[in-house]
């Protein structure tokens, strides 16, 4: 299981194990990561799982994710991702995501 580090809005860094094949939003909500809500249940509509990639690499967002980030996310940046759209793989071990928001 790849270990993914989330930096919560308050600055706390927490590392969680993600099961390959599940979204990083599911791994984050299971672990109680502050600021990851997943209000739409992972359907790429609400941007309440918005994070910024701080370290590591991910595949680029598809068109729907990019559009949701542009129109629904607060303060989107080039490194913005919706964790509901990122499926965990073994190759993601060690990535760091900063939860967007206040």
Please tell me about this protein's structure:
With 102 residues, this protein is of the alpha+beta class. The chain has helices at residues 24-31, 63-72, and strands at residues 3-7, 13-17, 50-55, 80-82, 96-99. It has a 5-stranded mixed beta sheet. Strand 1 and strand 2 form a beta hairpin. The longest helix has 10 residues, at 63-72.
Summary tags:
5 strands; alpha+beta; globular; 18% helix; 102 residues; 23% strand
Fold topology:
Blueprint: E1 3-7, E2 13-17, H1 24-31, E3 50-55, H2 63-72, E4 80-82, E5 96-99
Question: What's this entry about, in short?
Answer:
It contains two helices and five strands. It has helices at residues 24-31, 63-72; strands at residues 3-7, 13-17, 50-55, 80-82, 96-99.
Tally of individual helices? 2
Radius of gyration: 12 Å
Physical arrangement of strands within the biggest beta sheet: 2-1-5-3-4
Strand content: 15-25%
N-to-C span: 30 Å
Largest sheet: 5 strands, mixed
Class based on secondary structure composition and strand pairing: alpha+beta
Quaternary organization: single chain
Model regions low in confidence, pLDDT < 50 over at least 5 residues = none
Order of helices and strands: EEHEHEE
| Portion of residues within helices | 10-25%
> What average pLDDT do the residues reach?
95
Number of strands: 5
Looking at the structure, what is the overall shape? globular
């Amino acid at each position: 299981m790849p270990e993914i580090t989330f930096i919560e809005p308050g600055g706390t860094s927490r590392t969680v194990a993600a099961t390959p094949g599940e979204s990083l939003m599911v791994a984050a909500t299971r672990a109680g990561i502050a600021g990851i809500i997943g209000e739409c249940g992972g359907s790429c509509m609400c941007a309440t799982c918005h994070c910024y990639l701080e370290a590591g690499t991910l595949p680029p967002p598809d068109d729907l994710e990019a559009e949701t980030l542009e129109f629904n996310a607060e303060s989107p940046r080039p490194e913005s991702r919706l964790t509901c759209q990122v499926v965990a793989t073994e190759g993601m071990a060690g990535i760091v995501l900063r939860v967007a928001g206040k």
